[in-house]
Amino acid sequence: MNTPGLMVHIRKYGLCLILVWTCILAGFLLLLVNEYREDTITVATREARDYHELNLQYRRWGAKVGGVYVATDKVVPNPYLTVPDRDVTTGSGKSLTLVNPAYMTRMVFEIIRNETKHPIINRLVSLKPLNPANAPNAWEQETLKLFEKREVRERSQVLTIEKRPYLQFMAAFITEESCLKCHAHQGYQVGDVRGGMSIAIPMSGYLAIEADRKNSLFGSFALLWALGVAGIAVSSNKRHMQEMRIVEKSVGLEQEIIKRQQTQEHLEEQTVKLEEEISERQQIQEQLEEQAAMLEEETAERQQAVQELQKKNVDMEQFIYTVSHDLRTPLVTVKNFLGFLENDLLGDNQKRVSQDFQFIHCAADKMKLLLDELLDLARSDHVETPAVRISFKDMLAEVLDTMAGVIKGSQVSIDLPETDLMLFGDRPRLCQIWQNLIENAIKYSREDRIPRIEIGVQQVNGEPVFFVKDNGIGIDPHYHGKVFKIFEKLDPKSPGAGMGLSMIRRIVEKCGGRIWVESEGNGKGSCFYFTLPLAVIQS
Amino acid sequence: MNGHPLTILLVEDNPDHAVLVMRNLEDFKVANKIIHVDDGQAALDYLYGQGEYADRLRFPIPNLILLDLRLPKVDGLEVLREVKENAELKSIPVVILTTSDAERDLVRAYEFGANSFLTKPVDFQEFTNLMRDLGFYWLAWNKRPW
């Protein structure tokens, strides 16, 4: 709601009230003015009627007595009176003339007319007047006609006579018994309307009173109107003020509402911002958690790498230690037997000379073997061929093909597995596992038995476990852990540098698996078990 | 050189080196008897008089043990530890005679109570001199309780 509109509304409202008030007062005033006029007319009519009644009674009396004789020096004889004995002379010689009621009243009213400034006019009029002066004017004539028709017996109206306001009153003049004395010759009968008595009462006095009353009425109405208008103005103003206050309040409220809406919008914005911030923080937290997880993973990887490195370090240390020891060993032999050889040649000890040469040769061969195996080991660690798919059976066939000569020479019988599975990995390295194990089985076979090797795979707890079983010399349970160590040999006289199982263990561990040996002891044969989780494709 | 027969237990897995040591010691005639075993387990069996070594007349408690460290089955250091923890055996001088000169072997050998630590020289003359001095030192000059 806007303020100017309200102001216009209030003004319109006030003006309307004032207009209605004015109309009401004007209506009442009009009503009262009419009333006043009617009062004036009523009073004037009453006066006229009084005159008429008085006049009538005088006439009635005059007619009843048959007129009154009046001295002729006082009254001129009525020329229109045509009755015998109109003029008589008394015994004393006084001349008398008969004055009938009409003549008498005329004369009375002539006195009234002559004595007052605004005289009362009274006359008898008839459509058939005896006296021409009694001829009716236009209004009287109209009224007389109404009388003749017997529609009314009385009529009054305010008229202007001789430029003055008058109340003209007319009453029907009904023929009575006494009238016939003079008017029987005109053919009237008792009860006939013979004419009308017309009385004009001057209104100026009444009108002056009416004007006075009207003036005071106007005055009081003006006052009333003014009071009303003032009241309306005051109440309208008050109302206006109230409405203004309401408007102000509503404006205040609207502003408050706007402010609150703004605050709410602001809050909503902040809420949205906060929600965004929260989601951002959540994202950051998630990222942090991811990073933390990655770090943990990395840390774990690093720890694993460190452990691997440490293990490699230990291996390396062991390796260096072993190499320095094992390479020195034949060197010591070679050098020292060369010394002996020198002495033995000088002393011509032929038996010792050939012995010395034998030792030197063996030591040199050992060095060669050692170097070859070291090279193999280095290759197994550092030379990798791309991973390929190969079936277990195909791979074994390849291994046996490679070893065909050795197998034939040792007359070993080999049982191959019935079940097959797919492998995926560094093919030469995988082949090396079985090759070395088969070589070991042949190398450590019992002389009193035909070597027999069983190769297979079995499911243990859902995991394929490979095995290479022989009926050879077996391994004392005490040494089951030691056999996989680098350059460890249980039998110092056996060929090789003691790197075979160590190398197998490395390959198995690279495939995420483990290797162990089971043997009941010396002479009981042994069985090597190993797993290759990373190289087996589970079907 | 007090007239008692002197026995040396040589624990050496390398047959060449065993020959090398025995030839030298025989040449200098410092010992009456040199017994060679080629792994740690055999050495312990000998010392405890177990299995094939039960006959103390043939296999007497040695006056000196020449012990290689890297041995099959039972390691040289393990043999040393058992000898030095055994009340009857701990007084036998144990000379470590090894190809390696690794620091950790040296330290641990002395920790376990080795009486001497020698590295096999590559040079023939040095090896010969060492064997001679060793024999004389431990078996001729060194006083022992028995």
Topology at a glance:
The complex is a heterodimer of chains A (539) and B (146).
Chain A: H1 3-65, E1 68-71, E2 87-89, E3 95-99, H2 101-115, E4 121-125, H3 138-148, E5 154-161, E6 164-174, H4 180-183, E7 193-202, H5 204-346, H6 350-382, E8 388-391, H7 392-402, H8 404-410, E9 413-415, E10 422-425, H9 427-443, E11 452-460, E12 463-470, H10 500-510, E13 515-518, E14 527-530, E15 536-537
Parallel strand pairs in A: 9-11
Antiparallel strand pairs in A: 1-3, 2-3, 4-7, 5-6, 6-7, 8-10, 10-15, 11-12, 12-14, 13-14
Chain B: E1 7-11, H1 15-28, E2 33-37, H2 40-48, E3 64-67, H3 76-85, E4 94-98, H4 103-111, E5 116-119, H5 124-141
Parallel strand pairs in B: 1-2, 1-3, 3-4, 4-5
Helix pairs in contact in B: 1-5, 2-3
Oligomer: heterodimer
Percent in helix of chain B: 40-55%
Question: What coarse outline of chain A follows from CA principal-axis ratios?
Answer: rod-shaped
Structural class of chain A: alpha+beta
Are there runs of chain B of 5+ residues with pLDDT below 50, and where?
A: none
Note the overall shape of chain B: globular
- Full CATH superfamily name of chain B: Response regulator
CATH level 1 class label of the domain at 3-65 and 100-202 in chain A: Alpha Beta
Number of helices of chain A: 10
List keywords for this structure.
heterodimer, A: 539 residues, alpha+beta, Beta-Lactamase, Heat Shock Protein 90, 5-stranded mixed sheet, 4-stranded antiparallel sheet, 15 strands, B: 146 residues, alpha/beta, Rossmann fold, 5-stranded parallel sheet, 5 helices, 41% helix
Textual characterization of the structure:
- The complex is a heterodimer of chains A (539) and B (146).
- Chain A has 539 residues and is an alpha+beta fold.
- Chain A has helices at residues 3-65, 101-115, 138-148, 180-183, 204-346, 350-382, 392-402, 404-410, 427-443, 500-510, and strands spanning 68-71, 87-89, 95-99, 121-125, 154-161, 164-174, 193-202, 388-391, 413-415, 422-425, 452-460, 463-470, 515-518, 527-530, 536-537.
- In chain A, strand 5 (154-161) and strand 6 form a beta hairpin.
- The longest helix of chain A has 143 residues, at 204-346.
- The two termini of chain A are 84 Å apart.
- By secondary structure, chain B is an alpha/beta fold.
- In chain B, 41% of the residues lie in helices and 16% in strands.
- A five-stranded parallel sheet of chain B has the order 2-1-3-4-5, sandwiched between helices.
- In chain B, helix 1 (15-28) crosses helix 5 (124-141) and helix 2 runs parallel beside helix 3.
- The interface between A and B is medium-sized, with 32 and 25 residues.
